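Both lines are retained for reference:
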Amino acid sequence: MDINVYNLNFVIGLFGKPKTFSYSANIERGIDTSGVMVLDYGNFKAVCIGAKDCQVLTASTIQGDKGNIFIEIPANRIDAYIINYNDGEGSVESFDENKHRMLYEFETFIEIIDSNDFERANKYLEVSEIVAQILQEGRAQVGIKIKD
């Protein structure tokens, strides 16, 4: 199951591998249908909530001591974000809405391939590997057996 894969990729892409993590899940017939992954980075925590058993409006918030960044659509479809400072100031940053949501990803793949930028490719692969590891270990924490 791919519960939380986009959320984890977003958070780990921004902040790297957490020091520890824990998973709590709703399980039906041996598979997680929804769950909460808490990532502990030492000086801050990240909470990723994913579900396949309900429909809900999805948003993301990155909270800091000076304000927050709010994303009002799923992280895998981000085309804009709102910066809100504690003093009441803020701004909206947006991407070109007329472009396919994966265009930037494809353009990045082309850049990496055309320039043989193996270092950059390996950084993206490392994020994917960390996400897969956390998903697998998180499911093991709640007793879900992964078939080999």
Notes: The chain is about 30% helix and 30% strand. The helical segments are 5-15, 103-115, 118-141. The beta strands are 20-28, 31-40, 45-51, 60-63, 67-71, 80-85, 90-94.
